[in-house]
Amino acid sequence: MNPIREDEEDVLSRLESRLGSVCDVISGLKQRTAELESQLRGALDERDAAMSVAQSARQEIKQYQEEAEALRNRQKQAASRIKTLLNQVEQMDLLSEN
Questions:
Q1: Alpha helices (H) in the chain, listed in sequence order
Q2: How far apart are the C-alpha atoms of 39 and 93, rounded to whole Å?
Q3: What is the pLDDT of residue 9?
Q4: 95 and 89 in contact (C-beta within 8 Å)?
Q5: Measured between alpha carbons, how far is 7 from 24 in angstroms, rounded to an integer?
Q6: Do the Cβ atoms of 22 and 28 come closer than 8 Å?
Q7: pLDDT one-digit tens code per residue, 15-63
Q8: For residues 31 and 23, is the Cβ–Cβ distance under 8 A?
Q9: Dihedrals φ, ψ of 68, to 5°?
Q10: Rounded Cα–Cα distance for residues 28 and 25 (Å)
């Protein structure tokens, strides 16, 4: 055989081997990319769900704060009415033992 022909075949053989390796690497990278995209979609879905839960929780907190404020106001009004009634009773002198 011709030595030049053997060198060309050796070069072609090495090139084919490297191309095969490159194809394997690219295939692995494509698979990893697909896995990462799937994980990202899952993470985004979880984030959206968590944000929805957080928003609902904020709305509940706001509602409970408003209810607590309304109850405090009712309690203040009741205390004020009781004081007024006690003052009226005292003024009527109904509590004295005569």
A1: 3-92
A2: 79
A3: 82
A4: yes
A5: 26
A6: no
A7: 999 999 999 999 999 999 999 999 999 999 999 999 999 999 999 999 9
A8: no
A9: -65, -40
A10: 5
Residue pointed to by tokens 């022909």: 5
Q: Which residue type does 77 have?
A: Q
Instruction: State the chain's mean pLDDT as an integer.
Output: 91
Token pair recorded at residue 75: 């309690």
CA 58 to chain centre: 13
Helix (H, G, I), strand (E, B) or coil at 94: coil
Residues 6+ apart with CB under 8 A from 12: none
What residues have CB less than 8 Å from 95, skipping those under 6 apart?
89
Q: How far is the C-alpha of 55 from the C-alpha of 60, rounded, in Å?
A: 9
Give the C-alpha separation, 31 to 12, whole Å.
28
